[in-house]
Amino acid sequence: MLSKWLRGKLLSHKLSVLLDAMPMPYLSILLFAAVFAGAVLAWEAPLWVGTLYALASLVCFAVYARDKAAARAGRRRTPERTLLLLGLLCGWPGALLAQQWLRHKSSKMPFLVASWGTVVGNIGFFLYLASPVSFLRMAEGIR
Q1: How many CA atoms lie within 13 A of 45 on its CB side?
Q2: For the segment 26-64, what is each residue's pLDDT rounded down to a tens digit?
């Protein structure tokens, strides 16, 4: 039988290999998909919210792509504040994919920290609104 220490080392190595193979943007999107599915099943969150995330992500990805093209051509850029706001307004999956695939805004640490902040903020707000304790859900129960 493997010692506890050796099992821990092997497990951490396997986890490390998995995380290296699946970068954080993909993992966070997959985890959110699982959270969304759970909210739909457990709290009857509306399915149209998933469509909202998909559309907002497409718009956000397109804005990142346009900004990347503008940066290369030396044209007027999209303000970072706008990119972050689009991410906060449900477009963060598209923002993360654009950062990964287009290699745009992927090395500026202050922007990355703010971008991940929009991810956490959006998911937190989603969970609150979808949960039974949200003011929207409580208002539905009053009717």
Answers
A1: 22
A2: 999 999 999 999 999 999 999 999 999 999 999 999 999
Give the Cα separation of 41 and 55 in Å (integer). Answer: 22
Q: With pLDDT > 70 as the criterion, what percentage of the chain qualifies? A: 83
Q: Which residues of 5-17 are buried (b: 16+ CB within 10 A; e: fewer)?
A: eeeeeeeeeeeee
Amino acid, single-letter form, for residue 22: M
Which 8-state DSSP code applies to residue 105? S
| Residue reference for tokens 């007027």 | 76
113, two tokens: 């920290």
* C-alpha–C-alpha distance, residues 135 and 113, integer Å: 30
Q: Cα–Cα distances in Å, from 20 out to 25, 29, 53?
A: 12, 16, 26
Alpha-carbon distance of 102 to 96, in angstroms, equals 10
Find the helix packing angle between 109-130 and 24-43, rounded to 10°.
10
Q: pTM value?
A: 0.80
**Token duo for residue 119:** 């991810």
